[in-house]
Specification:
Elements: H1 24-30, E1 65-70, E2 73-78, H2 89-104, E3 110-115, E4 119-121, H3 126-129, H4 137-146, E5 163-167, E6 170-172, H5 174-180, E7 184-188, E8 192-194, H6 208-216, H7 218-227, E9 231-232, H8 233-239, E10 244-246, H9 251-263, H10 267-279, H11 285-302, H12 304-315
Parallel strand pairs: 2-3, 3-5, 4-6, 5-7, 6-8, 7-10
Antiparallel strand pairs: 1-2, 8-9
């Protein structure tokens, strides 16, 4: 398999992110700005699936992450190996920006997330958490509910491009929640998952109580969250938490291979179907079918690539995808 050959990154000063303070005005200034909103369609074909309007995230230099791109595959590496890639306040802001950057980049098709060193992510950096100034809790509450999540990106439901997690070593607490952000999880044999924050009386505030039961089922999720016990790679595969287990040291290689395979496919239908899956969570059976139908009609009516696929099948030829199938 060809090695990952990242492009030369764009160098820009890091933005002055900060955690919200007690004062409302400063709290508003400290939030990463985002004017991204979904347009409300006037009909089933009012917009292509997965299109957003707003201001894209500009490339920046990161201190706690590596953001690399090889053709249409983006590699996002959590790069605090001495702390087992635990998430600090600065890293939190960088992750929020990196996810938005991937979402906005028309040339980025698939994201692979992994951790440097011997861990995927050991959760929040509790040493950093212990030094947070006590905020005005009402202002903090407003900040949380007006931002995409406690981690700044954990409540994102607007990334319809495929995401793969290459999990090596510890993926616990917020690290497990970060792995659950991915659509596919490739686990090395030494991978360990779990809600280990139980030991320190820390709540699962970054999507675990939502995404874990959707992934492994209610009963297993409840047991994992209540007990906080570690789950090894073999059990993770058995219960559906991992999609595939590979030898130690091979998770990234396998994830990159899979990402390249997906990137070679036409992207429009993939994003439309992922959007349908994400948006249908919690809806009634009838609402789910209606959502799927609206996105299907949007693809047929507005996407030349879907019609090209049908024509190629009928003509028994290889399709000539316009714009990578978007």
């Amino acid at each position: 398999m060809a090695p990952f050959s990242p492009r030369r990154p764009t160098t820009r000063p890091s933005p002055p992110w900060s955690w919200p303070s007690a004062r409302a005005a400063r709290c508003r200034r400290s939030r990463p700005r985002s004017c991204w909103t979904w347009t409300k369609p006037k009909g089933p074909c009012a917009r292509p699936a997965g299109r957003l309007i707003g201001r894209p995230a500009e490339p920046v230099d990161y201190h706690n992450l590596k953001y690399e791109q090889d053709d249409h595959v983006v590699l996002l590496t959590y790069d605090r190996p001495a702390q087992r890639n635990a998430i600090s306040r600065e890293m939190n802001a960088e992750l929020h920006h990196a996810w938005q950057r991937f979402r906005d980049d028309d040339d980025a098709f698939v994201l692979v997330i992994t951790g440097a060193g011997d861990a995927f992510c050991a959760g929040w950096d509790l040493g950093d958490v212990s030094e947070w100034p006590e905020p005005d809790w009402e202002e903090f509450r407003r900040h949380i509910f007006n931002s995409p999540g406690a981690c700044g990106y954990s409540r994102r439901v607007d990334v319809f491009k495929p995401v793969i997690a290459a999990v090596n070593g510890w993926a616990v607490a917020a690290g497990l929640e970060n792995a659950l952000l991915a659509d596919i999880r490739i686990a090395a044999e030494n991978a360990v998952f779990g809600a280990l924050e139980r030991r320190w009386n820390i709540v699962a505030g970054d999507g675990m109580t939502v995404r874990l039961p959707l992934t492994v089922g209610y009963a297993r999720a409840m047991e994992m969250i209540i007990t906080g016990r570690p789950v090894d790679a073999a059990e993770a595969l058995r219960i559906g938490l991992a999609n595939e287990v590979v030898p130690e040291g091979k998770a990234f290689e396998r994830a990159l291979e899979l990402a390249r395979q997906i990137a070679r496919l036409p992207q429009g239908a993939i994003r439309s179907d992922k959007e349908a899956l994400v948006r249908n969570v919690g809806r009634t059976y009838e609402e789910q079918l209606r959502q799927e139908a609206e996105l299907t009609i949007s693809m047929f009516m507005r996407r030349d690539s879907m019609r090209e696929g049908a024509r190629a099948f009928k003509g028994r030829r290889q399709p000539d995808w316009p714009h990578h199938g978007l």
